[in-house]
Amino acid sequence: MPENRALPYLALVLNALVWGVSWWPLRELQGEGLHPLWSSAFTYLLGALAMLCFMPKVWGEFVRHKALWLLALAAGTTMVGFNWGVSIGEVIRVVLLFYLMPIWAVLIARVALNERITLKALLRVGLAFAGAVLVLSPNGSLGFPLPSNLAEWLGLMGGAAFALNNIMLRHQAERTAQARLFAMFVGGIVAPSAVAALLALLLGEGNAFVQWPVLPGFYGGLVLLAFAVTLLVANYGLQYGASRLPANVTSVVMLSEVVFATLSAIVLTQEVLTLQVGIGGAMIVLAAALSALENKDAH
């Protein structure tokens, strides 16, 4: 029976949808007393255990290839920045700052892979930077685009880590997709739990940032389990779609996450998409899309 040609696209859109609305279960769990860093760690722990049950060989491949450890670190740092940021800040701003990847991708590729910085790359960086100026500046004014709170810094950090994550995925293309996915799950366990534990230890009991994890009630446990299963399905959707479509097509389709995040934040919270932020966000998304389209030309 021939494969449905729409399935890879639908799988990628599903992944983007899950990540676009992931802030909601994270905030629900935070309301149950479970910090988003602990929620992230527990969620990926369930995913990693599921992989080990059905694909035990991924552990050996992960241990043997140290470059996968760097992938795990990049993925874990991405989870720390994105999941914590969207849980405590304005979803729209955090997601847009996360997608400033064209800037980070150019810089990291230059340092790590010695890739030449082209004129097109500089133009994309300029476009993304101009978008960041609009997103980060107070409405009606312009200034140097520095984040004004922890959530915005986390979004920026998560985007930089995600750019490294994508470069490492490309660098480790010879590894199996399962091993790369498992490495990202391991990072999603280790980095958030390490940051949460360190902050809880340093800041002490009663601090406003991170507390030690508590056992969630029935509702919290149900949300945590559903979130873990949904993320596992979404990540397999990403692997399915990305393995059947050109990389540039995958990158462009995944930008729909910005749309899902924006719409869900407007509908479910009191967030408002202003004209200035909307224009800045469109510039950032356009820079990311142009980056994906140039990758098509490069291959």
From TrEMBL:
InterPro entries the record matches: EamA_dom, EmrE-like
Transmembrane segment boundaries: 7-25, 37-55, 67-85, 91-109, 121-138, 150-169, 181-204, 216-238, 245-267, 273-293
Keyword Magnesium recorded: no
UniProt key word Chloroplast: no
Cited SUPFAM superfamilies: Multidrug resistance efflux transporter EmrE
UniProt KW keywords: Membrane, Transmembrane, Transmembrane helix
Segments forming domain EamA: 9-136
PANTHER family for this protein: ACYL-MALONYL CONDENSING ENZYME-RELATED (PTHR22911), MOBA-LIKE NTP TRANSFERASE DOMAIN-CONTAINING PROTEIN (PTHR22911:SF79)
Name of the protein in question: DMT family transporter
Organism, as annotated: Limnobacter profundi
